[in-house]
Protein backbone atom coordinates (compact mmCIF):
# COMPACT_ATOMS: atom_id res chain seq x y z
CA UNK A 1 0.00 0.00 0.00
CA UNK A 2 1.35 3.44 -0.92
CA UNK A 3 1.81 6.27 1.54
CA UNK A 4 -1.18 8.10 0.03
CA UNK A 5 -3.34 4.99 0.45
CA UNK A 6 -2.24 4.74 4.09
CA UNK A 7 -3.34 8.30 4.74
CA UNK A 8 -6.69 7.70 3.08
CA UNK A 9 -7.19 4.54 5.11
CA UNK A 10 -6.56 6.46 8.33
CA UNK A 11 -9.00 9.18 7.26
CA UNK A 12 -11.82 6.65 6.93
CA UNK A 13 -12.00 6.22 10.70
CA UNK A 14 -13.59 9.28 12.28
CA UNK A 15 -14.67 8.60 15.89
CA UNK A 16 -18.19 9.73 16.77
CA UNK A 17 -17.74 12.04 19.73
CA UNK A 18 -21.27 13.41 20.23
CA UNK A 19 -23.61 11.06 22.08
CA UNK A 20 -26.65 12.08 20.02
CA UNK A 21 -24.95 11.13 16.75
CA UNK A 22 -24.35 7.47 17.50
CA UNK A 23 -25.92 5.06 15.00
CA UNK A 24 -28.72 2.67 15.93
CA UNK A 25 -30.08 -0.45 14.26
CA UNK A 26 -31.95 -3.68 15.00
CA UNK A 27 -29.49 -5.59 12.78
CA UNK A 28 -26.27 -6.86 14.36
CA UNK A 29 -24.61 -6.79 10.93
CA UNK A 30 -24.92 -3.00 10.92
CA UNK A 31 -22.43 -2.81 13.81
CA UNK A 32 -18.76 -3.65 13.47
CA UNK A 33 -17.13 -5.65 16.22
CA UNK A 34 -15.64 -3.11 18.67
CA UNK A 35 -11.89 -2.70 18.61
CA UNK A 36 -11.54 -0.38 21.60
CA UNK A 37 -10.92 2.69 19.48
CA UNK A 38 -14.59 3.68 19.47
CA UNK A 39 -15.60 6.41 21.92
CA UNK A 40 -18.26 4.20 23.53
CA UNK A 41 -15.92 1.19 23.87
CA UNK A 42 -12.45 2.59 24.58
CA UNK A 43 -12.92 2.35 28.36
CA UNK A 44 -14.62 -1.07 28.31
CA UNK A 45 -13.23 -4.51 29.12
CA UNK A 46 -13.65 -5.94 25.62
CA UNK A 47 -11.64 -9.05 26.38
CA UNK A 48 -14.13 -10.25 28.98
CA UNK A 49 -17.18 -8.91 27.14
CA UNK A 50 -16.17 -10.79 23.97
CA UNK A 51 -18.74 -13.63 24.40
CA UNK A 52 -21.52 -11.04 24.13
CA UNK A 53 -20.23 -9.79 20.77
CA UNK A 54 -20.98 -13.05 18.92
CA UNK A 55 -24.23 -13.27 16.94
CA UNK A 56 -25.34 -16.84 17.48
CA UNK A 57 -28.40 -18.71 18.68
CA UNK A 58 -28.34 -18.57 22.46
CA UNK A 59 -30.44 -19.12 25.52
CA UNK A 60 -33.57 -16.99 25.84
CA UNK A 61 -36.03 -15.78 28.46
CA UNK A 62 -37.73 -18.80 29.98
CA UNK A 63 -34.87 -21.16 29.04
CA UNK A 64 -31.90 -22.51 30.90
CA UNK A 65 -29.55 -19.52 30.69
CA UNK A 66 -31.40 -17.35 33.19
CA UNK A 67 -33.96 -18.48 35.73
CA UNK A 68 -36.71 -15.88 36.19
CA UNK A 69 -38.51 -15.73 39.49
CA UNK A 70 -41.02 -12.88 39.58
CA UNK A 71 -42.31 -11.98 43.01
CA UNK A 72 -45.49 -9.97 43.65
CA UNK A 73 -45.92 -9.37 39.91
CA UNK A 74 -48.28 -12.29 39.20
CA UNK A 75 -50.46 -11.39 42.16
CA UNK A 76 -50.76 -7.81 40.96
CA UNK A 77 -51.82 -8.96 37.49
CA UNK A 78 -49.21 -6.95 35.63
CA UNK A 79 -47.52 -9.56 33.43
CA UNK A 80 -48.41 -9.11 29.76
CA UNK A 81 -47.72 -11.69 27.06
CA UNK A 82 -45.11 -10.46 24.59
CA UNK A 83 -44.45 -13.03 21.86
CA UNK A 84 -42.29 -12.24 18.85
CA UNK A 85 -40.36 -9.18 17.78
CA UNK A 86 -43.51 -7.50 16.47
CA UNK A 87 -45.38 -7.72 19.78
CA UNK A 88 -47.23 -4.61 20.92
CA UNK A 89 -45.07 -2.01 22.71
CA UNK A 90 -41.79 -3.81 22.02
CA UNK A 91 -39.53 -1.42 20.16
CA UNK A 92 -41.71 1.65 20.83
CA UNK A 93 -38.81 3.21 22.74
CA UNK A 94 -35.89 0.84 22.34
CA UNK A 95 -33.50 0.77 19.37
CA UNK A 96 -30.12 -0.96 19.82
CA UNK A 97 -27.12 1.38 19.82
CA UNK A 98 -24.33 -1.17 20.00
CA UNK A 99 -23.57 -4.74 18.96
CA UNK A 100 -24.52 -6.61 22.18
CA UNK A 101 -27.90 -4.84 22.27
CA UNK A 102 -28.59 -5.67 18.62
CA UNK A 103 -27.67 -9.32 19.19
CA UNK A 104 -29.88 -9.49 22.27
CA UNK A 105 -32.77 -7.98 20.28
CA UNK A 106 -32.36 -10.52 17.48
CA UNK A 107 -31.78 -13.61 19.60
CA UNK A 108 -34.49 -12.94 22.18
CA UNK A 109 -37.82 -13.52 20.47
CA UNK A 110 -40.09 -13.17 23.50
CA UNK A 111 -39.96 -10.34 26.03
CA UNK A 112 -40.78 -10.14 29.72
CA UNK A 113 -43.39 -7.35 29.76
CA UNK A 114 -44.36 -5.77 33.08
CA UNK A 115 -47.28 -3.36 32.72
CA UNK A 116 -48.67 -1.24 35.55
CA UNK A 117 -52.43 -0.68 34.97
CA UNK A 118 -53.72 2.82 34.34
CA UNK A 119 -54.40 4.80 37.48
CA UNK A 120 -53.26 1.96 39.76
CA UNK A 121 -50.96 2.58 42.71
CA UNK A 122 -48.98 -0.50 43.77
CA UNK A 123 -47.32 0.01 47.14
CA UNK A 124 -45.49 -3.32 47.20
CA UNK A 125 -42.29 -3.46 45.11
CA UNK A 126 -42.55 -5.68 42.04
CA UNK A 127 -39.35 -7.76 42.17
CA UNK A 128 -38.08 -9.78 39.23
CA UNK A 129 -35.31 -12.12 40.39
CA UNK A 130 -32.97 -13.12 37.57
CA UNK A 131 -30.55 -15.93 38.41
CA UNK A 132 -27.75 -16.85 36.03
CA UNK A 133 -27.22 -20.58 35.70
CA UNK A 134 -23.73 -20.64 34.22
CA UNK A 135 -20.99 -18.27 33.10
CA UNK A 136 -20.42 -20.42 30.00
CA UNK A 137 -23.94 -19.79 28.68
CA UNK A 138 -24.53 -16.73 26.49
CA UNK A 139 -28.04 -15.62 27.48
CA UNK A 140 -30.06 -12.75 26.00
CA UNK A 141 -33.16 -10.93 27.20
CA UNK A 142 -35.55 -8.12 26.35
CA UNK A 143 -37.49 -6.68 29.28
CA UNK A 144 -40.28 -4.09 29.02
CA UNK A 145 -41.45 -2.03 31.98
CA UNK A 146 -44.51 0.04 31.07
CA UNK A 147 -46.21 2.40 33.52
CA UNK A 148 -49.63 3.34 32.13
CA UNK A 149 -51.06 6.86 32.68
CA UNK A 150 -51.56 7.87 36.30
CA UNK A 151 -50.02 4.73 37.75
CA UNK A 152 -47.50 4.53 40.61
CA UNK A 153 -45.13 1.62 41.24
CA UNK A 154 -41.65 0.34 41.98
CA UNK A 155 -40.02 -2.33 39.80
CA UNK A 156 -36.80 -4.09 40.81
CA UNK A 157 -34.54 -6.31 38.68
CA UNK A 158 -32.32 -8.32 41.04
CA UNK A 159 -29.50 -10.25 39.32
CA UNK A 160 -27.64 -13.13 41.00
CA UNK A 161 -25.70 -16.25 40.01
CA UNK A 162 -23.31 -16.58 37.07
CA UNK A 163 -23.97 -15.66 33.45
CA UNK A 164 -22.72 -14.25 30.18
CA UNK A 165 -25.73 -12.02 29.81
CA UNK A 166 -26.77 -9.39 27.26
CA UNK A 167 -29.91 -7.58 28.34
CA UNK A 168 -32.13 -4.87 26.85
CA UNK A 169 -34.50 -2.99 29.15
CA UNK A 170 -37.24 -0.82 27.62
CA UNK A 171 -38.94 1.59 30.04
CA UNK A 172 -42.04 3.63 29.17
CA UNK A 173 -43.51 6.06 31.70
CA UNK A 174 -46.74 7.36 30.20
CA UNK A 175 -48.55 10.62 30.99
CA UNK A 176 -48.79 11.39 34.68
CA UNK A 177 -47.29 8.06 35.80
CA UNK A 178 -44.63 7.72 38.51
CA UNK A 179 -42.17 4.84 38.32
CA UNK A 180 -39.25 3.85 40.54
CA UNK A 181 -36.98 1.46 38.63
CA UNK A 182 -34.03 -0.27 40.33
CA UNK A 183 -31.51 -2.67 38.77
CA UNK A 184 -29.26 -4.51 41.24
CA UNK A 185 -26.22 -6.40 39.93
CA UNK A 186 -25.34 -8.90 42.68
CA UNK A 187 -23.60 -11.41 40.41
CA UNK A 188 -20.87 -13.93 41.10
CA UNK A 189 -17.40 -12.79 40.06
CA UNK A 190 -17.29 -14.90 36.87
CA UNK A 191 -20.23 -13.05 35.29
CA UNK A 192 -20.07 -10.73 32.29
CA UNK A 193 -23.12 -8.52 31.88
CA UNK A 194 -23.90 -5.88 29.25
CA UNK A 195 -27.23 -4.13 29.67
CA UNK A 196 -28.76 -1.24 27.73
CA UNK A 197 -31.64 0.62 29.39
CA UNK A 198 -33.68 3.01 27.25
CA UNK A 199 -36.53 4.99 28.79
CA UNK A 200 -39.07 7.56 27.65
CA UNK A 201 -40.84 9.83 30.14
CA UNK A 202 -44.06 11.43 28.88
CA UNK A 203 -45.94 14.57 29.96
CA UNK A 204 -46.02 15.30 33.71
CA UNK A 205 -44.53 11.85 34.38
CA UNK A 206 -41.66 10.93 36.71
CA UNK A 207 -38.97 8.27 36.58
CA UNK A 208 -36.47 7.43 39.30
CA UNK A 209 -33.86 5.20 37.70
CA UNK A 210 -31.24 3.45 39.84
CA UNK A 211 -28.29 1.19 39.00
CA UNK A 212 -26.54 -0.65 41.86
CA UNK A 213 -23.56 -2.85 40.93
CA UNK A 214 -21.49 -4.96 43.31
CA UNK A 215 -20.92 -8.38 41.77
CA UNK A 216 -19.62 -9.59 38.43
CA UNK A 217 -16.31 -9.67 36.62
CA UNK A 218 -17.23 -7.14 33.92
CA UNK A 219 -20.54 -5.31 34.31
CA UNK A 220 -21.60 -2.63 31.81
CA UNK A 221 -25.02 -1.08 32.48
CA UNK A 222 -25.78 1.90 30.25
CA UNK A 223 -29.02 3.80 31.00
CA UNK A 224 -30.59 6.33 28.63
CA UNK A 225 -33.58 8.51 29.58
CA UNK A 226 -35.50 10.65 27.10
CA UNK A 227 -37.54 13.41 28.75
CA UNK A 228 -40.08 13.58 25.97
CA UNK A 229 -43.21 15.15 27.45
CA UNK A 230 -43.82 18.63 28.80
CA UNK A 231 -43.09 18.76 32.53
CA UNK A 232 -41.46 15.34 32.60
CA UNK A 233 -38.88 14.62 35.30
CA UNK A 234 -36.17 12.06 36.04
CA UNK A 235 -33.70 11.30 38.80
CA UNK A 236 -30.89 8.94 37.82
CA UNK A 237 -28.82 7.42 40.61
CA UNK A 238 -26.00 4.92 40.53
CA UNK A 239 -23.76 3.08 42.98
CA UNK A 240 -20.84 0.79 42.18
CA UNK A 241 -18.26 -0.95 44.36
CA UNK A 242 -15.37 -2.45 42.40
CA UNK A 243 -13.03 -4.98 44.02
CA UNK A 244 -9.77 -6.50 42.76
CA UNK A 245 -10.07 -7.37 39.08
CA UNK A 246 -13.65 -6.13 38.73
CA UNK A 247 -14.67 -3.77 35.94
CA UNK A 248 -17.84 -1.73 36.56
CA UNK A 249 -19.15 0.66 33.95
CA UNK A 250 -22.10 2.98 33.31
CA UNK A 251 -22.51 5.30 30.34
CA UNK A 252 -25.44 7.54 31.21
CA UNK A 253 -27.45 9.60 28.70
CA UNK A 254 -30.16 12.11 29.62
CA UNK A 255 -31.98 13.80 26.72
CA UNK A 256 -34.12 16.85 27.47
CA UNK A 257 -36.55 16.91 24.54
CA UNK A 258 -39.80 18.41 25.87
CA UNK A 259 -40.40 21.78 27.51
CA UNK A 260 -39.96 22.45 31.24
CA UNK A 261 -38.24 19.15 31.94
CA UNK A 262 -36.14 18.44 35.01
CA UNK A 263 -33.27 16.00 35.32
CA UNK A 264 -30.78 15.14 38.05
CA UNK A 265 -27.97 12.57 37.82
CA UNK A 266 -25.83 11.41 40.76
CA UNK A 267 -23.53 8.38 40.50
CA UNK A 268 -21.00 7.26 43.11
CA UNK A 269 -18.27 4.65 42.96
CA UNK A 270 -15.87 3.05 45.42
CA UNK A 271 -12.77 1.10 44.42
CA UNK A 272 -10.42 -1.18 46.33
CA UNK A 273 -7.87 -3.80 45.35
CA UNK A 274 -5.43 -4.23 42.48
CA UNK A 275 -7.05 -3.90 39.07
CA UNK A 276 -10.38 -2.58 40.33
CA UNK A 277 -11.84 -0.20 37.75
CA UNK A 278 -14.95 1.96 37.55
CA UNK A 279 -15.96 3.84 34.40
CA UNK A 280 -18.61 6.54 34.41
CA UNK A 281 -19.49 8.58 31.33
CA UNK A 282 -22.35 11.04 31.63
CA UNK A 283 -23.90 12.73 28.60
CA UNK A 284 -26.64 15.34 28.78
CA UNK A 285 -28.32 16.69 25.63
CA UNK A 286 -30.64 19.71 25.83
CA UNK A 287 -32.62 19.68 22.59
CA UNK A 288 -33.63 22.62 20.43
CA UNK A 289 -37.22 22.65 21.71
CA UNK A 290 -36.39 22.02 25.37
CA UNK A 291 -37.30 25.45 26.74
CA UNK A 292 -37.19 25.75 30.52
CA UNK A 293 -34.84 22.80 31.06
CA UNK A 294 -33.32 22.32 34.52
CA UNK A 295 -30.51 19.78 34.40
CA UNK A 296 -27.56 18.66 36.51
CA UNK A 297 -25.23 15.64 36.60
CA UNK A 298 -22.52 14.64 39.06
CA UNK A 299 -20.17 11.72 39.57
CA UNK A 300 -18.07 11.12 42.71
CA UNK A 301 -15.59 8.29 43.23
CA UNK A 302 -13.77 7.21 46.39
CA UNK A 303 -10.45 5.40 45.93
CA UNK A 304 -9.70 3.15 48.90
CA UNK A 305 -6.40 1.53 47.85
CA UNK A 306 -3.60 1.87 45.33
CA UNK A 307 -3.79 -0.10 42.08
CA UNK A 308 -7.29 1.05 41.13
CA UNK A 309 -8.54 3.21 38.28
CA UNK A 310 -11.56 5.48 38.00
CA UNK A 311 -12.58 7.15 34.75
CA UNK A 312 -15.11 9.97 35.10
CA UNK A 313 -16.19 11.87 31.97
CA UNK A 314 -19.12 14.31 32.13
CA UNK A 315 -20.38 15.85 28.87
CA UNK A 316 -23.00 18.54 28.24
CA UNK A 317 -24.47 19.41 24.84
CA UNK A 318 -26.81 22.42 24.74
CA UNK A 319 -28.87 23.33 21.67
CA UNK A 320 -31.23 25.78 23.40
CA UNK A 321 -30.21 28.78 25.48
CA UNK A 322 -33.68 29.39 26.93
CA UNK A 323 -33.23 27.14 29.97
CA UNK A 324 -33.42 27.36 33.74
CA UNK A 325 -30.00 25.86 34.28
CA UNK A 326 -27.54 23.12 33.34
CA UNK A 327 -24.33 21.92 34.90
CA UNK A 328 -22.09 18.99 35.70
CA UNK A 329 -19.41 18.00 38.17
CA UNK A 330 -16.93 15.18 38.68
CA UNK A 331 -14.55 14.30 41.51
CA UNK A 332 -12.31 11.33 42.24
CA UNK A 333 -10.14 11.12 45.35
CA UNK A 334 -9.13 9.30 48.49
CA UNK A 335 -10.47 9.71 52.04
CA UNK A 336 -11.19 13.14 53.41
CA UNK A 337 -8.43 13.66 55.96
CA UNK A 338 -10.48 16.17 57.92
CA UNK A 339 -13.31 13.66 58.36
CA UNK A 340 -10.86 11.02 59.54
CA UNK A 341 -9.20 13.46 61.93
CA UNK A 342 -12.57 14.47 63.40
CA UNK A 343 -13.64 10.86 63.97
CA UNK A 344 -10.29 9.83 65.46
CA UNK A 345 -10.33 12.87 67.75
CA UNK A 346 -13.59 11.49 69.14
CA UNK A 347 -11.87 8.25 70.12
CA UNK A 348 -12.89 6.17 67.11
CA UNK A 349 -10.14 3.78 65.94
CA UNK A 350 -8.70 4.51 62.49
CA UNK A 351 -10.03 1.37 60.78
CA UNK A 352 -13.54 2.02 62.13
CA UNK A 353 -13.29 5.68 61.14
CA UNK A 354 -12.41 4.73 57.57
CA UNK A 355 -15.33 2.31 57.43
CA UNK A 356 -17.72 4.99 58.63
CA UNK A 357 -16.49 7.43 55.98
CA UNK A 358 -17.03 4.90 53.16
CA UNK A 359 -20.45 3.82 54.39
CA UNK A 360 -21.54 7.43 54.79
CA UNK A 361 -20.32 8.28 51.29
CA UNK A 362 -22.26 5.45 49.62
CA UNK A 363 -25.37 5.50 51.78
CA UNK A 364 -26.44 8.81 50.25
CA UNK A 365 -27.41 6.78 47.19
CA UNK A 366 -28.76 3.76 49.07
CA UNK A 367 -31.17 5.88 51.10
CA UNK A 368 -32.78 7.18 47.90
CA UNK A 369 -34.12 3.70 47.11
CA UNK A 370 -36.94 4.05 49.61
CA UNK A 371 -37.45 0.30 50.13
CA UNK A 372 -36.28 -0.95 53.54
CA UNK A 373 -35.58 -4.54 52.45
CA UNK A 374 -33.42 -3.49 49.50
CA UNK A 375 -31.63 -0.75 51.43
CA UNK A 376 -30.77 -3.22 54.20
CA UNK A 377 -29.44 -5.74 51.68
CA UNK A 378 -27.28 -3.18 49.90
CA UNK A 379 -25.91 -1.80 53.17
CA UNK A 380 -24.94 -5.38 54.08
CA UNK A 381 -23.19 -5.74 50.71
CA UNK A 382 -21.21 -2.58 51.39
CA UNK A 383 -20.13 -3.95 54.77
CA UNK A 384 -19.17 -7.27 53.15
CA UNK A 385 -17.07 -5.51 50.51
CA UNK A 386 -15.24 -3.48 53.14
CA UNK A 387 -14.63 -6.54 55.31
CA UNK A 388 -13.23 -8.42 52.31
CA UNK A 389 -10.85 -5.59 51.41
CA UNK A 390 -7.20 -6.35 52.06
CA UNK A 391 -6.54 -2.81 53.27
CA UNK A 392 -8.35 0.47 53.75
CA UNK A 393 -5.18 2.53 53.86
CA UNK A 394 -5.44 5.81 51.91
CA UNK A 395 -4.35 5.53 48.31
CA UNK A 396 -1.27 7.44 47.32
CA UNK A 397 -2.93 8.52 44.09
CA UNK A 398 -6.54 9.19 43.20
CA UNK A 399 -6.47 7.05 40.07
CA UNK A 400 -6.53 7.97 36.43
From TrEMBL:
Domain SUF system FeS cluster assembly SufBD core, residue spans = 139-361
The Gene Ontology biological process terms listed for this entry are:
iron-sulfur cluster assembly
* Record's compositionally biased regions (Basic and acidic residues): 7-24
> Which residues lie within the region annotated Disordered?
1-36
Concerning InterPro entries, the annotation shows: Fe-S_cluster_assembly_SufBD (IPR055346), SUF_FeS_clus_asmbl_SufBD_core (IPR000825), SUF_FeS_clus_asmbl_SufBD_sf (IPR037284), SUF_FeS_clus_asmbl_SufD (IPR011542)
Q: Which Pfam families match?
A: SUFBD_core
Q: Which family does the UniProt entry place this protein in?
A: Belongs to the iron-sulfur cluster assembly SufBD family.
Q: What is this protein called?
A: Iron-sulfur cluster assembly protein SufD
Amino acid sequence: MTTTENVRSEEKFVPIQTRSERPSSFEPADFETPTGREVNWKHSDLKRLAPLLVDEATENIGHDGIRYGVEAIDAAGVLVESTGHEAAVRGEVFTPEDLPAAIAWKQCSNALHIQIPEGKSIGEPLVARLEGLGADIHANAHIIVEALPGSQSTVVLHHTGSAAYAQNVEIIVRDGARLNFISVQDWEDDTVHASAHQARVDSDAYLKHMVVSFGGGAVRVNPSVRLHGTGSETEMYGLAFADSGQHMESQVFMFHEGENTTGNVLYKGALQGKGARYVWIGDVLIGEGANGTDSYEKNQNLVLTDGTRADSIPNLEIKNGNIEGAGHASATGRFDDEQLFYLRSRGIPEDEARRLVVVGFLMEIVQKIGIDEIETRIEALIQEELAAGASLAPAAKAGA
